[in-house]
Hints:
This protein is of the alpha/beta class. It has helices at residues 3-9, 39-51, 69-72, 84-98, 100-104, 122-137, 147-153, 181-194, 238-244, 307-320, 369-382, 406-409; strands at 29-35, 57-60, 115-119, 142-145, 169-173, 198-200, 205-211, 214-220, 223-232, 252-261, 271-274, 279-283, 289-293, 329-339, 346-349, 355-359.
Amino acid sequence: MPLTLLKYGLPGDHVPTRDIPPTPDLKRSYDVAIIGGGGHGLAAAHYLSKYHGIRNVAVLEKGYLAGGNTARNTTTIRSNYITNQSIRFYKEAVSLYESMSHELNFNVMFSQRGQLTLAHSDSTLRSFHLRAEMGRHNGTRISVVDQQQVRELCPHLNMDMGGQHEVVGGLWHEDGGTARHDAVAWGYAAQASGRGVEIHQRTEVQGFDIAGDRVAAIRTNRGTIRVGQVIQAAGGLNEQVARMAGIELPIRCFPLQAMVTQPLKPFLNTLVSSANLHTYLVQSSRGEIVIGGGSDPYQLAATRSTLDLKEQLAHGAVQLFPFLHNVKLLRQWAGITDMTPDYTPIMGASPLKNYWLDCGWGTWGFKATPVAGKYMAETVARERVADILQPFSLKRFETISLINEMGATAASH
Ligand SMILES: Cc1cc2nc3c(=O)[nH]c(=O)nc-3n(C[C@H](O)[C@H](O)[C@H](O)COP(=O)(O)OP(=O)(O)OC[C@H]3O[C@@H](n4cnc5c(N)ncnc54)[C@H](O)[C@@H]3O)c2cc1C
């Protein structure tokens, strides 16, 4: 064994710093309890403690920090949605990513390399013109590009001229990018816990004590706590957690899978997606090709992956980049996504006065981590739903004010 390892490793004066302290005992009460220690719950904790001075906060996480969908997503960040409400919301998300490393004093490796959505038919191209108009109207960087421009943006792409999947153009979204998912979660966790927020891992919410129209206490596997206010950000288990509080959500769970190849030399400098092929690809900073697609077509609350989906994604990836045909796959995984009927999240008030919802994030919620955290914190601090969140209320399903983003979500997330 090297002597320097003994010399510096054994004495106690070179103790590594910890980004978050070990899980403490639960206190008897908290001003705010956040259910779910994923990106959304942790971001809300950060904003509550930094911008609203609310620090008597417990984040209750049944597993380990950010081990839910935050750990499983493919990190597409973009604002090229269809409706005004969504574009405005996700545009702010992108701008918060642009300054996130500075905000968190933590390198989240935000890489704004643009997203290219491929059109394989003239009708798709026509719908892209609408999206580009909507995006530009709301101030995002987005345009329809022709075949030649697609070639320039993505020189290694198989254009399949004259073939079944000929690329006839695309939707180019310069604001699109990616970030390290674990860095985002750990950055928020480190900031929040540095200001006194308690992060309780292995702490499962198992029930609620309701008094009138309020949650009085939360029952966990480690004891019961009294709470002033509650934020629910439980990812794939949002429907179940809400039901424990007596709230029925229009959410159903579907598995979403992804996979990653061995590292390759850099060849892909944009995010590329094809709704026709139900496939999108991005090259990670390590050179791996991350490949994802649409949700599994059946409800299931499980994180197993399937050969069927792997074959489908491999088909799409090789169609777009034929030289990937002999590349090795390293991993395949799945998350449980909490899907809403209009492919849009549910944020804000619930039937219980002190219980706030941050759910229905389905296959698209990583990009929203900072903006949801920011405005959920504002909502709780002021006990009034922030203006930007108003369109995303649970009530929209009663008033038939749905925000249909199915076309913008498909296989792009
Ligand atoms: C394969 C895949 C690819 C994706 N790709 C993208 C993408 O490219 N771009 C994008 O924007 N989004 C993407 N998403 C979606 C994105 O991952 C999620 O929308 C986002 O991570 C949701 O964050 P969250 O913090 O709300 O949930 P999570 O990260 O799931 O955190 C919720 C936490 O709540 C905890 N919890 C649940 N029940 C309880 C309980 N009873 N008590 C205590 N804790 C509980 C869970 O353990 C979990 O850690 C993808 C998802 C998957 C699965």
